[in-house]
Amino acid sequence: LPEGGVFALPEDSRIIGLIYTSKMNKMKRYFGMLRSTKESVSCLQTLTVGLKQQVRTERSRLEAEIKQTASEALQAVQKWKDVQLSQLSQLEARFSSSQEEVDRVHKRRVALEIAMQMAREVHRVPFLEQYCTLDKVVETLEAPVDEQSYDMESTSRGCGLRSVCLIVIYTAPPTGPQLANDWRIHRRKKHLLLGNKRNVAQWVVLSHVVNPSHFYVSYVAEKREREILEKKIDLFCCADGCLFSSSDVVETGATVFAREGRGLWSRARVLEVFQSGCVEAVDVCPAGRLDRLRLFFLDSGLGKSLDIHREEETAASSLKAVNDHLRKVEEGVKVELRCFAPQAIRCSLKDLVPYDPTKGWSREAQLEFLSVVGSAAVKMRPMGQDRDSLLVDLRKAPVDQSSDVPISIREYLVFIEVARFYSPVNLGRWPLLFHPPKYPEVNTELDAVVSHINSPADFYVQLVDNMEFVLLSTKLQDYYNATTVSAEKELTIYCPVMEQACVARYEDGTWYRARVVGHPGGRKVEVHYVDFGNKKTLPVSDLRKIKDEFFALPSTAIHCCLSGVSPLDAETWSDACRNRFIRLALQKLLTVVATGNVPKAEPLPVKLLVSGPNGPPGDIAELLVREELASFKEGIESAAAGEEFAIWDPPLDQAWVPEGGDAADRSSSGEKEEFRLRLPDQLKDVKVRVSHVNSPGSFYVQFTQNNAQLRRLCQLVEEECALMEPEEVLWKAGMFCGALVDGVWERGRVCSDAASANFIQVMRCDHGNKVKLPVGNLRSLPSSLTGSLALECALTDIRPAGGCSTWTATACELISFYLTGASAVLTIKEVTGEPVPVTLFCSNKTGVLVNVADFLAGEGLALKERKPRGAAVQTSTQTDARPLGIETQTDGSDGEKRKEQTPSAPPVSAAASVPPRVSAPKPAPRTIMSAEKVTTELYRPPELPGLGPIQMSVSAIGEDGVIYGRTGTAERLLEQLRQRIQQRLDSLPEQKPYTWKSVQGCAVIGPDMLWYRGQLLEVLGGHVKVQYVDSGLVENIPVVHVHPMLLCADVPQLCLPCQLHGVAPVGGRWQRDAVALLRELLLNRCVNLQVTELPSDPRDPFTVELYLDGLSLSRILCHHQHASECGRADASPVLLVDDWDIDSKDLRDPEEPMLGPFVYPDLPRGGGRFGVRVKHLRTPNELFLWLSDGAAEVEVGGETLEGALTRVNADVGALQPLTSFRQGGPCLAEYRDGKFYRAKMLKFSSVSPVCVLVQHVDFGSEDTLPTSRSEAPPPQEDTYRRPCVQSFELKVIV
């Protein structure tokens, strides 16, 4: 207080108290006002949030009502439209009287026009007066028009139909793909209308001219649309999003914005891209390294080459130079511009060719065309279409106002002699022709395909062994499909000449060599394809000049006729004979034998012999005569006329008799032919045909020297089985049979015992592949016809890539695609059991023989085997490629097999020896190790338990869902067995090549270098698939670790196979995830079993009911939807869950809420088409796609998925770290761009440091992240409940 007191009042405690009280009251009022203000602010915030939520709800409701109202309006309009259209059928009846009056008026008008035309002609030529009656003409012209005589009221009467007025709510016009599709449909209808109504003219302006046969126009009616398009493009190019950055690329075929001649931005398509430092064009180039590119402007037709000039060689300067000339087109811009179709329409003046066809269009013709048309609008009348060009005639308005006849541009160019109308010409000199085909020698059998047939006296064949034609055809397609615009102008033929050699395009778009043989008119030509023989009428635009390099190969189509036969009437071939001959020979592999020499201009007389099982046996000419469709010429009789039978091929024994044999013995008729595979004497460079391919380690070949033998065999099998009735035969594995495959009888061998009464699996003995046939298609086969002519082979010196022991599906599909049915050259490395190790060579496109093993290694599908130093090389320095001391088998004169020893080199005597000289040491002789044939039996089957409960330790789970385990007794026996085996085999046996086909039980060296008992399942080239009989585990093991011998054969296998009772796998077979679940639950675990059924074969699995801690495994699988119950009934009630009394009071809730799994989208229906975008590629046949139906923009709680993720990434610090890492659980995972996206946890990939393998559910990619880069979604978030609409997994089936 002041010294003088307050207001001169003395100091008093009472006064001080009053002042303090007054200040405190004032402060309380301030605090009260502040508290009420805070409450008001809180209420306002709550009100704001509520209003926002209410606005979102109201907006959603209004959108739904708008859509519903629009849908109802559309339905009402459609209903009204249907009603009105249904009443249009009665329109003619309602206007019947009006139609009559219209007909009367039309007749009157026609009479007046005729009279006026006659009056004009008489006025122009007076002497025509005597040829017409002028009185009638004058009467017609002077007759007045009486309006009262016409019933005009009928034209004013309505049709009785009425329309309804609809209130339609306005909706935004369609955009994006919908509008683009509508535009294309409209444009397509417009073009169809122009094609159907050729007299309809359109006003157009010229936009670009290459020559009178190649120019571009745009419709005058679309001028407003072009202006709108130019404004939109200019607006897009001004935005920063259209500038190229360092991460952008320019691709061939992409659409960009570029400056045209007028300086305006226009749409352009990239035709060629040139990169800095590269001479050749590239497909993709970074924007910063772009040097030059060639563009085609879609809206003008202009083709332009654009050079990118840089001031400095820096990244910024390069991008600035690119952006000065180009702009990129983003996805959103593409969608918005799809509604604007290209404005430039390619046209050609119909039937107009250069004045000098040999020189092409001159510069004068182009300038005259531009000068006469100019920038004025002209009338275009469509007159046809030639591929992507409209054939038109342009007419310009006359300059002289006194004339109303338009000027024809075509006639003008012809008048000034820069062009002329198309007509066939003859240059007065003989054009360059193809070399005639090379005729085969007389009486020589050759394989050929009949390419074209006119009649039995006029057809064409192609020889099969002609790799040069395949090379020529490939080069032809590559050259003419890749020609540029300038090169195409040089190759264009304007006026073809008779007999002119050219290249013609066929219906499928491929190019073939041809010659012109006719001019049917209408700017069309008739050509003859010299490599096939057929003729075709084509437009001149489908012809191209032929390069000199394609003249090198003579024509491959040989003109032939059937030898010795003529038509029944000796003049013309009947249609029945011609059709029968076509069915027998067209596009089929036959054996051709020339019977005489003729001039090149005449058809070559030949005999056609069937060369496959699909055709009838014998000579086709004799077959036509027997069917009374043809007759032999005079003096010629059938080859079989004086014999009871004819030998089609030489007997097998004659083919294999060595030289010098007795001819009388060779012609012995008591011998029987044998159709079994024999290896040729020469094991090197043997010609074969690949008949079937399983993998590089298993494929089948046929020796070409056995073709005649194979044809003879097919004939005998068909004769034996065709007339045989089906019989009851119990087919067993390994039995030979006659099989009806695709209508042809062949030799087959049963693969397994008949599992059902309807179908059985059979291997085609002479081809190698397996087919499933009805039992009724099998017949018993005599022993004389058993055997095989297909050899199973395996490629040597390679092994599967990727660390796998088996060949990948990609390697198998690739080698099958290239080798199946191909001719090849084969070298046998060593004579072992099948598959035989070989080296295979096949021709590539250039005709060079390529090692198939090297090809697979070059493609990254195989790895080269490393050969140890000093290993024996399987080659021979002798000309016959046979090692010393190797026995071969030949046929003697009596048909029996005999052995002959290859003689060794005679010793050199001491007298004839020469003084020793110092020389380099020679390597040891190279030998071929023959394979040792070994046969082993299976181990004794296991001892099955009795029905009832048992206890078993699970050791393995098979891919087929079979559970393998051992009982307690078997575990003790296994320890004793291991000690016996290790004591018996204290060293490795000598490794030899074996024939594994007959090996069943074997001994295996495991990864721990201990011996185990095994069973051989399959041979896979250098590996074998083996199952450990005492554990059930299946592995692929190199053959060096497997030995064909039995260990402790007196001990039965200790592993018991079993299968679950009363369940069936989903889809008919156990899936990988189901097998993985079984392995996770059962492996190395002792379980209780209830044996319910024992099999008849002790090696088959017995049926059990398996329980895990009182829970049935079958029900667990059904709960996880891996299996389904099928008539199961519990044998005895089992207590599944113990009844525990657990008090959950005072227990804390989990800190992190348990979030549910993601919701996946519904897949589209099968057979339907839907738009997608590939988002992630795991393998070539496993993709992750985005559906492009707009489902990603669906709002949940008023917010889209993109908005929710943006909001979450804006406040990452508020996210809680993960504490629950359950498999399949949702989370937010950080990507390499630093943002968090939705993901699900798959598994722990490592423990130190702790890393989790996650999958981004909206993209499909997988990533391994530490726990610090994965966060838990907020509990109130609905992001994990949103459907994963943006990606789903797809497997492509080829």
TrEMBL record:
Keywords: Coiled coil. The keyword Endoplasmic reticulum does not apply. The keyword Plastid does not apply. Residues 52-108 form a coiled coil. It comes from the Eukaryota. Residues 866-924 are annotated as: Disordered. Gene3D superfamilies: 2.30.30.140, 2.40.50.90. InterPro entries: SNase_OB-fold_sf, Tudor. Residues 907-921 have a biased composition (Low complexity). Residues 495-553, 730-788, 1220-1280 form the Tudor domain. This is Tudor domain-containing protein.
